[in-house]
Amino acid sequence: MIIGVLALAVVVLLVDKVWLSDGERGSVPATAAVDKSVAVLPFADLSQGQDQEWFADGLAEEILNALARTPDLLISARTSTFAYKGTDKDIPTIATELGVAHVLEGSVRRAGERIRVTAQLIRAADGFHLWSQNYDRNATDIIEIQEDLAIQIANALETTMDPESLKDMLRVGTTSVEAYQAYIHGAALRAESLLENDPPTMIEAYGYFEEAREADPEFSHAHGAAAQYWVSQMSLTSFHFDTSELMPLSEMLQMFYERNGIAIATAKNDTDRLLLRAERAEVDLRLREAMRLYREYLDARPNDLIAWEAYLENATKASDLAAIREALAALREAGLKRPEAASYFMDYAFQFLEPNDGADYGLAAIEKWPLANIMYQTHRNLLFAQRVDKAGEVMRSFAQRYGRPHPLMVARQRCAEGNTERVREILTEVWGNEVTVNSGNPQWLVLKMLGEEERAVEVLRNFEAQQVPFLMASWLNYTYFDPTPFPALRSILARENVERPPATTLPYACTPK
């Protein structure tokens, strides 16, 4: 997955990467949280009109993003922390569930051009306030407030960086209050859209990123966020919003190139520039270069789990087993303390490790974090290990916890049980018989389960016809995908000197009983 486009939703479960709110090999022992780790909770909106939620959410997200750049701080992902928005859980419980030692909480109160921001850093073990601060300032001071908050928190957690280097790293990247406020408004809406599966809100978020770009043409983060919007439109196996009626995919690609290019040119430091260049190489399917750039970036920011996943994804497309093992090892270790890392690990473990490895790891992870993404990935790993009965238990637990079954989990389970008729019914009921931009990947997956290879190929030919190879590239993440029928992918693999092994078979494919 491209950096910055996390396809992790709270209400609607996504294909193969799923998020919802609320030792021995493969195990996830109950370890103590890393001391320099923090979760940034959504800030509360205490404004009289209760109309500044976007501002509170955007500010919290940008503080989180700033802290995430600090090499020796472990920051819980936004998709994890924002799941606790409006929760009545106490700080120790939240910290335990997220595997962090500290929690930052805060509030925003805005009246006209005055703004009050309150923040407090709490040590979860004993509830001690390591640091707290109140800002009562003009709204035009918001950039200074955000930068100071990030610096004070990092200093309170005693990072290894010297103060001047830290300050330079945590700068917002714009001096324009207008641009910054548009940007954090877009960031808040983007977070809401990903959590609520709300395409119109994502489009609205993009509009704010465009406003930020216009207000400050030197604001690299705004250009980068706008570029990533267009990546989301071209990523059929991730969080896709259908704008096919608005413009052809080739034009979407050009929109990405333009904004990404400006982001690279205006980046304030070499590390940010590395990330942006890696994203461009990934969209170009320059797989080797993308891997190299992501790896260089990770040398500077080794705790960026999304970058580790991007590195792993490109390594998978390139069939680079050494890089795959390196990334899996990093994510396995991080997954002892962070649920998102455990999910990323299991998203690939079933294809490259001994099947029970990912399955046992997932079962242990569920004990710590009974979240949808963990349960979904564990279910798939169990089926690859052919532990069908245990997989059925996880599937039922998922449905009970979230009030509904996940259709792909049910289809996989019924296939493993030999109930081919039910799988066909699910295919028709959920995704229909017509191929659409949002159903292509699930249709392909279910047809593969059913052994209908010709129909599965025809599903993907609809997307190959768009003549944007990146559109098809996500299927290279599956070892059971055969690129032979698709000339554009064959050409790219030849250019990248990828020797892809023969496609594997699904161990849970339907066999009538």
Topology:
Elements: E1 34-40, E2 44-45, H1 53-68, E3 74-75, H2 78-81, H3 91-98, E4 100-111, E5 114-123, E6 128-138, H4 142-156, H5 163-169, H6 177-196, H7 199-215, H8 220-234, H9 249-266, H10 270-284, H11 287-300, H12 305-317, H13 321-334, H14 339-352, H15 355-368, H16 372-384, H17 388-402, H18 407-416, H19 420-431, H20 440-450, H21 453-464, H22 469-473, H23 487-495
Parallel strand pairs: 1-3, 1-4, 2-4
Antiparallel strand pairs: 4-5, 5-6
Helix pairs in contact: 1-4, 1-6, 6-7, 7-8, 8-9, 9-10, 10-11, 11-12, 12-13, 13-14, 14-15, 14-16, 15-16, 16-17, 16-18, 17-18, 18-19, 18-20, 19-20, 20-21
Got a strand count?
A: 6
In sequence order, what are the helices and strands, one letter per element?
Answer: EEHEHHEEEHHHHHHHHHHHHHHHHHHHH
Which regions are unreliable across 5 or more consecutive residues at pLDDT < 50?
1-15, 17-32, 237-244
**Largest sheet: number of strands, sense, barrel closure:** 6 strands, mixed
CATH topology (fold) name of the domain at 283-495: Serine Threonine Protein Phosphatase 5, Tetratricopeptide repeat
**Number of DSSP helical runs:** 23
If you average the pLDDT, what whole number results? 85
CATH architecture classification of the domain at 283-495: Alpha Horseshoe
**CATH class category label of the domain at 283-495:** Mainly Alpha
Indicate the percent of residues in helices. Answer: 55-70%
Structural class: alpha/beta
Q: In angstroms, what is the radius of gyration?
A: 22 Å
Strand proportion, as a percent range, falls in 5-15%
The CA-CA distance between the termini, in Å, is 38 Å
What is the global morphology? globular
